[in-house]
Amino acid sequence: MTINCLLCGVGGQGTVLASRVIAEAAMQKGEKARTAETIGMAQRGGCVVSHVRIGECFSPLVPPASADLIIAFEPGEAVRCLAYLKDGGAVIACTTPVVPVMASIGKADYDEKKYVRILQEKVGNLVLVSAKDVSSACGSAKALNVYLLGAAIGSGKLPLTEGDIEKVLEKRVKPEFINMNRLALKAGIKAATEA
Amino acid sequence: MRELLMGNEAIALGALKAGVRCVCGYPGTPSSEVLETAAKRNPGGVYIEWSVNEKAAVETAAGAAYAGARAMVTMKQVGLNASSDPIMCLNYIGVKGGLVILCADDPGPISSQTEQDTRAFGRYARIPVLDPSTPEEAFEMTGKAFELSEKYQTPVILRPTTRVCHSCAGIEVGALQKPVGGDGFTKDAKWVIFPRLSYQNKQKLFARETELGRYFSESGLNSVSGSGSKGIITGGVTAAYVKDALEMLGNPPVRLMTVGTPYPFPDDMAQNFLSGLDSALALEELDPVCEDALIAICGRKHLPTDILGKRTGDAITAGEYSVIAAACDIAAFLKLPFEIKPQEAAAVPPRPPVLCAGCPHRASFYAVKQAMKGKKTVFSGDIGCYTLGNAAPLDMVDTCLCMGAGLTIASGLSHVESGRTHFGFIGDSTFFHSGITGVVNALYNQADAVFVILDNHTTAMTGHQPHPGIGRTMMGEISEKISIDNTLRAIGVKSLRRVDPLRLSDAVKAVKDAADEKGVRVIIFESPCIALQKPSKSARVQTEGCIGCRKCISELGCPAISVSDGKALISAGLCTGCGLCAQVCPVKAISLCGKE
What is the pLDDT of residue B437? Predict the structure, then answer.
């Protein structure tokens, strides 16, 4: 059986690191894992999507209507990727908007409140967090990716524990940021389990 | 121990494991991480360079391979065009040490100008092509490519696509080999290309095609499985989609051929695959390479099998495959029921990539736009981050073609259209890659254009690789910086200005002054890429002062600026303190302060 996880957000938010951490943690437990990431031009403030597949599969892309879990770094991007969610799948989404330039210059409509409403209407298993939750938990909103990883663990949709993620973070994160990331991870888990 | 490796990292480690001695390349998505990983994991003794362009990279690597060293060149598909001059001759000459040309294709295209298929180029150039479907296979095939190259004394192309390059899988790397340096260059007439030699070697190229095709049929790099009266042929990452799609469709009875060596085509194996089939469907990215190979076999052997694919409207002709796209095509072919939920129209506006907050290119484009307001102009752009200057509200890229074309297109326009001011934009790395010849051409032929060099001290778009103007090589050595100014003066540029684009009034004046002159004028806008430095300042809006005119956001389109309650709001997290908005604000309501 394959567990499919999709991470989406805006270039620069740290989706690539998050997807690698999930895949590496799964691999450490002896699982097979594949990822596919958006690297290149789209990273400059465009939509980015990372696919993670744990278990037996040939291709790296999560098919539509197959994601057990969507981890969205931004509410609009969460809605954009909803077609990937399978029936009964969970969504963890950060509600803090990153307003697209097209909307700021008045050439497109962007309404984060509407996106949150759509998520609430369509997703039964939904955890909403905000950048403020992240900074109050660990002192910096930059740990959003690790906070969301915590929420993913808390959701029970990934075959991973806090310890599995921590082990990978210790390898991948600079020592001076380890404590901040541990706090973010714990707070994320708490946010999802209490939701 | 298995390591989680991106396809590009796997290829680099495959090359190091094979004892590569020399790696050359020019950055280009999705290929750049191959050379970077080779440098990062260099066990010692491997020579690695970012070359000035792909042509120089191929020739440098060929030199190493002439001496018997194992060498690799890395590039993206459009880079192959820039290097096709040496490659189309090197196939005739051959190599002594193994030479692998790593050329990454970009179905979609996701980060490229074209959807060209390097498998078709390999067939045209008569150079063997290996086409991996996963990072694991890419790792194995890299070693195999070196063996083949040495055995048949020919360069070998390894052609991964974006979803192989930029996807990760667990791979057991094992010990790396000591670099294979070879026993040195031996003088021989065979290294000198002359008509007579080319005539003889072309006959050998043909003979080798047959020999290698036979070998590939037995090599284990291609496979046939399953049974039925209908067949599917596939290769590269599409093979992975097809396998997942067949599972999704409940594993219907079908004969499946996966092709890892699209050139020379494994004809014998394909003939066995076709034998007894009513019809065969070819699913592949990007050109109908396997499809055409099957059609040729059917013609040659008078086989009755119908070959379906791109040429019959049974497979996609542009863009990348996916499990769902493969399942749709297979279901239609096998007449299986398969429905996908129609997707609701996205409720979210598109979010195309944009110039970063604080990007100096924004300031450069804005200065030119302000200086030329109301004048007749054409802005010819080029390849790099600054291609993103095309988006609203800047709207400063009227043409974009390929590396280096910004300057030459502007020159061409100037020769036939005199009533306008023609601008050609080019980045610093692109200037070294293929811009210098464009300036020489313009001077020699007396073009009338303003060339704007956007010098941000790096190759930003592909991940900040060094280039000749930086003074640092990929081996970590300090080298003499090659000055753009001195180069231009030596060529004969008389009108030359160097300005910091973030000083808006100076920048506008420089453009106005240059526009008033005739002939070839150059403006160098110099300001380092914001991703290379930690910002010390941040802009802030004095809410009481802001009149809500939105000029800052509507003219600059900076992603750090948004509008909240009718007033401008600057995200402290994104702002780098470039200060451009503060210079644009008509009521001076934006000020710079230290970063928290």
Answer: 98
Q: Which fold has domain B537-594?
A: Alpha-Beta Plaits (3.30.70)
From chain B residues 567-586, the ones with a CB under 8 A of any chain A CB are 573
Tell me which residue of B76, B63, B59 sits closest to B21, measured CA to CA.
Answer: B63
Tell if the CB–CB gap between A65 and B4 is shorter than 8 Å.
no
Say if CB B149 and CB B156 are below 8 A apart: yes
User: Is B354 part of the contact surface with chain A (CB cutoff 8 Å)?
Assistant: yes
- The ipTM estimated for the assembled molecules is 0.95
- Minimum-distance CB partner of A37 among B166, B170, B244: B166
Cα B559 to the chain's mean position, in Å? 26
Number of cross-chain residue pairs from A and B with Cβ atoms under 8 Å apart: 160
Cβ under 8 Å to A: B residues 300-339: 322-324
CA–CA distance, B565 with B188 (Å, rounded to integer): 77
For chain A, the average pLDDT equals 94
Note whether B477 contacts A: Cβ–Cβ < 8 A. no
**pLDDT tens digits, B377-406:** 999 999 999 999 999 999 999 999 999 999
Which residue, B235, B244, B312, B237, is CA-closest to B273?
Answer: B235
- Other Cβ atoms within 10 Å of B588 Cβ, number: 10
Same fold across B360-532 and B537-594: no
Tell me whether residues B392 and A107 touch, CB distance under 8 A.
yes
Closest partner residue to A61 among B248, B322, B393, by Cβ?
A: B322
Query: What is the CATH class of A3-194?
Result: alpha beta
**The CATH number of the domain covering residues in B2-193:** 3.40.50.970
pLDDT digits (tens, 9 = 90+) for A151-189: 999 999 999 999 999 999 999 899 999 999 999 999 999
| Cβ–Cβ below 8 Å for B351 and A10 | yes
CATH class of the structural domain B223-334: alpha beta
Q: Indicate if the pLDDT at residue A75 is higher than 70.
A: yes
What is the rounded CA–CA span in Å between residue B477 and residue B457? 17
Rounded to an integer, the average pLDDT of B410-439 is: 97
How many angstroms separate the Cα of A68 from the Cα of each of A26, A52, A158? 15, 11, 8
Q: Inter-chain contact A45–B168, Cβ cutoff 8 Å? A: no
For the stretch B496-555, pLDDT in tens is 999 999 999 999 999 999 999 999 999 999 999 999 988 889 999 999 999 999 999 999
CATH of domain B360-532: 3.40.50.970
The span from the CA of B561 to the CA of B109, in Å, is 30
Predicted pLDDT at B596: 62
Q: Do A45 and B392 touch (CB under 8 A)?
A: no
Mean per-residue pLDDT, B153-174: 97
What distance in Å separates residue B498's CA from the closest CA in chain A?
27
How far apart, in whole angstroms, are the C-alpha atoms of residue B113 and residue B77? 10
